[in-house]
């Protein structure tokens, strides 16, 4: 779009007026305007986007807060107050959400999925998966395969 504006200005040098250039520029700005993030703006949105991107790594409340340039206490407070889920609740949510996708789309062993989503222990992964989905990972995969 910006290229088209420049092209038209150079081609139609004499015929282009300021109002038309302004109109085209505003139209262009609307196309590159602020993107809507599914978690919103502000510290909470930044925190949830960060966690969604980094859940499979060995992140902690402290390391995440440091990367976001906020205190761990403040980060914990905004997660708890605004979402009632807290740091570890969100971390497990993102990990199990991705594990479900891997169970649906791959034939990876369950322990491999546990590692890929950030769990160092298959046992802990299994406990969290069961508590968040109501099924074991094996049951979930079998159920999904039967339905599809």
CATH architecture of the largest domain: Orthogonal Bundle
Largest sheet: none
Tally of distinct domains: 3
Name the helicity range. Answer: over 70%
pLDDT < 50 stretches: none
User: What is the 3D shape?
Assistant: extended
CATH superfamily of the largest domain: Homeodomain-like
Tell me the strand percentage band: under 5%
> Roughly how many Å is the radius of gyration?
24 Å
The secondary-structure class comes to mainly alpha
Write down the CATH class of the largest domain.
Mainly Alpha
Compute the separation of the termini in Å: 43 Å
Contiguous helical run count: 9
Looking at the structure, the CATH topology of the largest domain is Arc Repressor Mutant, subunit A
Number of strands: 0
Average pLDDT works out at 84
Q: What is the helix/strand order?
A: HHHHHHHHH
Structure notes:
There is one protein chain. The protein is built from 9 helices and no strands. The chain has helices spanning 2-11, 18-31, 42-54, 61-68, 72-83, 86-105, 110-116, 122-133, 137-147. The model has no long low-confidence stretch (mean pLDDT 84).
Structure, briefly:
With 148 residues, the chain is mainly alpha-helical.
